[in-house]
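G., the chain you wanted modeled:
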Amino acid sequence: MPVEYGSRLPLSTANLKLRDNEDVQGLLLYYENVVCPKLSATPEGASDPFETYILPLALRDTGLLKAALGLTACHLATQQPTPNRRLNTAALEYRVAALQSLSAILLKEECFSLSEAEEETALAIVLMLVLHDTFECGRSNHGAHLNGVAFLCSRLIERSGVLSPSQMFLVTALTWFDLLRGFSGAEKLAFPPNVREYVATSAVATLTSLVGCPVEVFTAISNTLEGGKKFLAQELGEEEFRLSLNETLLRLQAWDPSTGLYPNADPEWVSLADAYKHMAMIRILRFPDPFSIPCSDYRIRNSVTAILDASTLVPRHSPYFKRLLFPLFLAAAETDSPHQQQYVVMCVEHIKRMTGITYHSITELLEKTWQGRRLSDGSRNVPWQEHTCSIHLPRQHDYLFF
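Predicted structure as tokens:
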């Protein structure tokens, strides 16, 4: 059966050559008509940022074009009933070519300087590479892509103060990925505070429409992880850290999601915001010692229940449902209730079908955490972070969720 990329050019994967111009056109149509809608959770009638901002840049820059083609071939390969060597090879070749282009841009930056267009292209390539990691396995070795462009995001903001819509989208998306990986280990936070402050003050609409996380929660997460990073580096004392955590927790508890600013009047935004609020509250409670509070503690249980209840208020067919992925993962990782665990499994399976992303890493992390919890006596927590960011791990990865 042929796979249709769009109305303009149906392309059969059975005789996919992955080398000629027709194939490039086919992959671009698949990116536009399949990948972009599956990535986005934009309201009906709103423009899709992955199409609006990435495609025009990709048609002007070969490196970004190859990054987008690699991401697309990877996504298409995951939809095949059996492994497709041609698609997998193409995805790898395009990604390697994109990495080479990114390296050339960053080398030029070291030796000379970059134009604003080249800076924007570098950020877009990194976003495509990070999403490629997410599609492929859900892990990114050491998050090198994000680390490598943290200074570019900071410089863009310091130099101009006002970003273009495409720059704002790229900075916001990359900042969110950096913040999200900080959940597993605050020491992994690479983006400087001024970038997160810019997103919180100037990119509120972009952040909410892209992720579903309201700025109040984003700020709370940012402050919590920044404090956690300083605490782990022994730059912040425990008593001062605890005071900061308590203040942030009280602000979150008092915040009413119905008062937030959202892209439109859809009630799903409020439910998403509530899920993110309790996700942030759980993370605060896990500092400074992730082992100290068992998941049976009423504060953890209440927030887990709130996340799951919020998810029931977002219809399964809604494009916003996919943005519940990380709050649902965290709820599942923080509960010892079998029926709550199974509910999340069903939700994640549905999100897999919505997005076409396999999310093997999520299943792997949850199974390891649940196994550890079954073997424990329940007096102490079994942190899922021990499987992502621990001194006992021979190799660490950044786990990615989107």
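The chain is about 65% helix and 0% strand.

Shout if anything looks off.
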